[in-house]
Amino acid sequence: MNRKLENGLWRHALSLMTATALSVALVLPGATMAAPATADVSKTGLAVTDTTVTVGILHSLTGTMAISETGSVEAEKLAIDQINEMGGILGRKIEVITEDGASDWPTFAEKARKLLVQDKVATVFGCWTSASRKAALPVFEKENGLLYYPTFYEGLEQSHNVIYTGQEATQQILDGLNWVAKEKGAKTFYLIGSDYIWPRTSMKIARKHIENVLGGKVVGEEYAPLGHTQFGSIINKIRLKKPDVIYAAVVGGSNVAWFKQLKAAGITGDKQTLLTISVTEDEVLGIGGENLVGFYSIMKYFMPVENENNKKFIAAFKAKYGDDSVIGDVTQAAYLGPWLWKAAVEKAGSFDVDKVVAASPGIELTTAPEGYVKVHENHHLWSKARIGQWQADGQVKIVYESDLIEPNPFPEGYQ
Amino acid sequence: MKAIYNNLLGGRQGVIGLALLAALIFLVLPMFLDIFRLNLVGKYLTYAFAAVSLVLIWGYGGILSLGQGVFFGLGGYCMAMFLKLEASSPENTAIQSTPGIPDFMDWNQLTQLPWFWEPFNSFPFTLFAILAVPGLLAYIIGVAMFKRRVGGVYFSIITQAIAAILTILIVGQQGLTGGINGITDLKTLHGWDIRTDSAKYLLYYINGGLLIGVILLSRFILSSKLGRLLLAMRDKEDRVRFSGYDVSNFKIFIFCVAAMISAMGGAMFTLQVGFMSPSFVGIVPSIEMVIFAAVGGRMSLIGAVYGALIVNYGKTYFSETFPELWLFLMGGLFIAVVMFFPNGLAGLYEKHGKRIMEKIKSLRRKPTPPAEKTLAAGNDTSAAAREAA
Amino acid sequence: MGGYTLTELGSIFVMQGFAGLSLFSVLLLMALGLAIIFGQMGVINMAHGEFMTIGAYTTVMFSVLTAKFAPGFIDYYFPFAMLVSFLIAFGIGYFVEFAMIRHLYKRPLDTLLATWGLSLIMQQIFRSAFGAREVSATLPEWLLGSFQPTESIDIPLNGIFVMGLTVFVTLGVFYFLFKSRWGLRVRATTQNRIMAGAVGINTRLVDRVSFALGCGIAGIAGAAFTTITSTGPTTGTLYIVDTFLVVVFGGAASLFGTIASAFSIAQAQSIMEFFMTGSMAKVLTLLTIIGILMLRPEGLFSIKVRK
Amino acid sequence: MSSATDFTLAIEDLTVSFDGFKAVDSLNMYVDRNELRVVIGPNGAGKTTVLDLICGKTKATAGSIKFKNKELTELSEHQIVRAGVGRKFQTPSIYENLSVYENLEISYPAKRNVWGCLTFRRTAEIEARVREVAAEIFLGDLLSMEAGLLSHGQKQWLEIGMLLIQDPELLMLDEPVAGMSVKEREQTADLLNRISQGRSVIVIEHDMEFVKNIAHKVTVLHQGKILAEGSMDQVQNDERVIEVYLGH
Asked: Which residue of B has its CA nearest to D97?
């Protein structure tokens, strides 16, 4: 662990300097430099003209997932607008084709194929749930497309054709567990999640970490079917086990029922430590701040993150989408996609997927709202983890911020 | 020969209908669509299997199964299991802690292939299972329900609950089933890459051929005495029983046949789309399948195919163009079909066709008396029945 | 269960019993409206869940408006919200019966499809009007938190509230169906429409009001569920299968059966949930229901009729 | 349990109760070979319920029904039919969407399992039999007509024909002349007299004139029990019968 961290810090420092230089160089001359010839920057028949390059956005605009994915679409469009205002990429304006995955996994695959085969887009920003990504992934691999995927997810995947701008499971989970073990002296944990792959994989990693690294004990592990709204029995089980920490990954409508019923059962933040990996500012709107007071979330980004990038980002976002817009972790990660792609394309001097992919590892973004990110060899991002404590008004107070964490989608000893 | 002509092909009108459909599937669509769109049509046509099966069981049998998605899904899963095993050869999965098993099992810490996956290494067994597994489930459900004379609304609600159960099971047992993600990343069938354009063309044609075959089979069933019995049972179940028939056996039979037809669609779906997931098993897809049949005409086998094509094309088109409008349209379509066109497109065609015929006739002789008109309207179902038979 | 004191086990026992009762009242509240619509009238209303959602959104709107214009009133708005939820759902139900259901009384399976279409349309209306996000009502203080009879027992207040409401609505429905003149007309109409018409009952009006009443009760249920969970455009679909199973399992025409079936399903599920995962508990509960329904296709309580 | 008898139908101690109400109460009734028995009684006497019990539509609470010494209470409807019992319902129950020919063909007692129905072919033998029966029920010229278009009386005949084609040994008819014109009634009486040759027939009927025309023996039911039994004359002069039924 330590060596990795040191290593990371050293690289961090080094790359900060180069990145600053790079970004200065990029921002200034973009407009003045003559755009390189199309034949040079696109040899694989992508939708690139002398003045434009076409990209795709592929999220659910309708259906059950539209709630969650709307923020990502907004963030991606904001980033693309900003890039276009700065002169575009390689002298070309970005044009967007938006497709609706309709919360239906085969539709994602179908629309991905349309974007790649018919529209020949240079890259796609999209997918949200693991299921939609899993459905679309074979298409991206077969057609050799490029996907920027924004959601924090279970890991266990690494594709030539995908850049993962959210956290993989270990980045999100391990530091949070270390923190509660240290700060709260937690020894016993109760794990609860919705019944599907992300919570199950996350809980598996959490359990290994608790048992093998922290020397703690998992006193219960529980999965509720998606859409479950009655947590009475589960809450009683938790009460019987009296865990030091409840570790939760419940999603969707169940999440709201879960927190409301916790509060109604008298399990509140002042009596019980609860750490969740499935509540961002987006979810709080539905759950209600009053039901979360004192509980903790771990994410890589919360709105109050203090830095200039974030201030600008929030201001721009609110200016475009209204003052009461809320930005959650995934929305921020989605915002990174177009910027990371821009940097990689410019580094490669080409839109061709293989060249962009080859150029991607090592790409850094000092302008990220979350602070600083860097693309790892394994196509995930180096990023920080932050723990926030929820306040009654639905805002979060950041109580812990980690160092940069190396992404490790296939964590040894955790599988 | 004449018997074949009349029973299988449904006489002159049936031959024309079938020929038109075959021409559309095999000639017109491939000529005008690129492979991307054609693959979509192929996907829609897999739903047509389910719609045809609903014509059998719902239109003729009067049994509204809200669980056709279950059988569609089971067929699809059987095929997906075989393809997944082929995709998970030890070489392809060398980075796993247990190479040689599907990736999602590895993530769920399974160290060996579950017993019920083993037989799916064999392609002949898989083909057998695609029909046998849904058929067996349908048989069990059928015996349990029809022998105890559960029918009508109760049957619909129970099949719906079964769809819910199977979805929860598949999602909950992700180590064995791939969970909510389903079984993905299917690549080859006996080394033949199913993702290439040529494979897609071939699969499309196989799919179309199977569909025509299924329609012929269904016609054979419906034009036999069994078909008449189904209609008889739908309207006067007691009378059939008191004519000495064991009604439940016939219901079980047609339910099993319908299940197997849906399952074929599911298997073709997996091959053409490249994955299978629990979202095709549940309540919503099952009801959508009923709508395909209702729009096409619940008494018309060929109508069901058009119903599946049109509703799905509409879904793709409108969700691309006016996503907001889509649900309104779909909902409105449900209501309109049920309230105003209970015989769907086939019924409309019948009426329209008849009117044109009448016009042609009326040019030759005096206008037909109104009495005959009402007569014709009253006989719509049987007229549609004859069209399908 | 070593390592626990007797008091602890006792407390858990009490709270677990309450969890079961609480689930029971939720199921019953959902099913009551349908017991009238499906049980008494034989109409399969697949949009029943959406009528609950109407109630839920009404309550959320009420809470938002109250918070905005009369923050001092926030402790008292809830009963009004429920009343309005009832009225709105009743009104829409009245209209739906007029425009759609009455044409389909003779075709129950077709009603199923048409009302499914209706549910799709209603979901899209919710989405267009209120957005796709899940929303929650701000609850009055007296509905939050728990009641602590002893140190180690916490009884959720919202659970008590839903339970009380269920008792109230159940009694109301019983009174309506079995004690009032109107109920007599409803029962007469459902048993013999032609005869009822012949003795001067306006069967059309009876149908319409019964359907609307069932929808109105769904509206109340929806309003009450805002205390438990959030509301989204597709919330209703979560409830529909369970609701139908409760009514069918109880024996469609028997109100008492509906109560008994809600009780047994709730107890079975909450007890099993205590000992196994939620998914398995759900699957086992559903399988048991189907198994019993196969043995007794007419449900738990059926009225034997000489045909 | 009762012992073997010579009767075609032997009903002994038959009871059925609906939620405590005994619609048929310890009924004993015997029908001879080739007998035409008429069952009469006021509404609610349990007449139709008795037929329901014999043909298996309703399950008995207690007692036995023996048909040619074969216990029927344990068989399901189609088995009872195959044993040789045919039943006509009160309201004509025919397949309205099928033609007269198809109605009769479906009722023809051959290939009544799933596979048989799939492979069923029209044979000359079946065709001849269908035509024969159709002629007998006065529908010989209407074979291709859709059954739904027949008159009420013709529908009643068609249903009788559907039973006839099965050649049952026991034929049960529930109000066969209800809704018929006078001429049709006469034709039906004639038909019944003809078809009761060589088989036993049970008829439920209210029309006394019609009953007189056909009955060998009359059973009067009242409140689920036999009130009187005997020839038409005997029954008509029975005081109890006059009191509860005929006198009004």
From this structure: B382
